[in-house]
């Protein structure tokens, strides 16, 4: 009888998600999380701490969604500006005394050097920024990005091996991007993309996003079966999701501030 009730129970609506983008009047290209929700009755655009989101009813075309975004570019820019955070750290040559990393601020020491480089001295617990007098601001920002990507790859290298035995195949590659709204994605070719801002977050939150994307190798949707796979590998995933809801906007904005000058 329980089996029969499951067969007769109405199916829950499937919510589809992907990402699109729109260019604002000031030249910014903004990523938009696009959600097709069978329960939605009209096109809806919203902005919160997680970024911009476009909700489409089941029968709405993608073309109508793109047109809706273009028509509301001014409103979107205004809302995004409202969510711009104040007091973000900026990279100032020989002035910046700390950098965010793994949920904390690590001391930063500046030194003269023949080349521009940023390295983490794990034993001493601080970072060392070596640079020449003639190094450009762009060179400093490149060093910061390379530093963060190196640290992120160190974390991935520590976590990934313990999950691979539970997967049918490994990801083809893991790459890092600066993402506006998403924290990660799995492409059809098996490439996992992760937001570089994850290395600023607490390590457990970063690891959760990795597990989330690895589970998409098993399930390409966000069905109950998918979340069961996440639960088996990372039981505390709800706490990390709440962490991103509370602090995710600041993490992304902090990285942008450090890399954009």
Structural account:
It is a single chain. Helices cover 39% and strands 25% of the residues. The mean pLDDT is 88. With 261 residues, the chain is α/β, with parallel strands linked by helices. It has seven helices and eleven strands. Helix 4 (137-163) crosses helix 5 (203-215). The strands form three sheets. A four-stranded mixed sheet has the order 1-2-4-3, with helices on one face. It has a four-stranded mixed sheet with strand order 5-6-8-7. Strand 5 and strand 6 (104-112) form a beta hairpin.
Task: Kindly list the characteristics that best describe this protein.
single chain; 261 residues; alpha/beta; four-stranded mixed sheet; 7 helices; globular
């Amino acid at each position: 009888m329980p089996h029969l009730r499951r067969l007769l129970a109405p199916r829950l609506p499937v919510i589809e998600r992907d990402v699109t983008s729109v260019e604002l009047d000031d030249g910014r290209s903004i990523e938009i999380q696009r959600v097709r929700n069978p329960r939605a009755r009209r096109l809806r655009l919203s902005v919160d701490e997680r970024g911009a989101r476009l909700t489409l009813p089941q029968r709405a075309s993608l073309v109508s969604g793109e047109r809706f975004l273009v028509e509301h570019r001014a409103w979107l820019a205004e809302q995004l500006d409202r969510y711009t955070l104040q007091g973000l750290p900026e990279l100032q040559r020989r002035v910046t005394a700390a950098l965010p990393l793994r949920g904390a601020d690590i001391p930063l020491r500046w030194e003269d050097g023949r080349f521009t480089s940023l390295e983490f001295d794990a034993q001493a617990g601080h970072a060392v920024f070596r640079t020449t007098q003639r190094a450009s601001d762009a060179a400093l920002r490149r060093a910061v990005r390379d530093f963060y990507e190196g640290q992120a790859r160190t974390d991935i290298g520590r976590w990934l091996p313990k999950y691979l035995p539970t997967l049918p195949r490994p990801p083809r590659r893991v790459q890092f991007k600066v993402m506006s709204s998403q924290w990660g994605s799995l492409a059809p070719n098996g490439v996992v993309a992760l937001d570089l801002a994850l290395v600023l977050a607490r390590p457990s939150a970063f690891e959760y996003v990795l597990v989330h994307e690895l589970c998409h190798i098993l399930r390409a949707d966000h069905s109950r079966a998918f979340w069961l796979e996440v639960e088996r590998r990372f039981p505390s995933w709800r706490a990390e999701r709440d962490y991103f809801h509370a602090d995710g906007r600041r993490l992304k904005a902090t990285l942008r501030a450090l890399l954009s000058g």
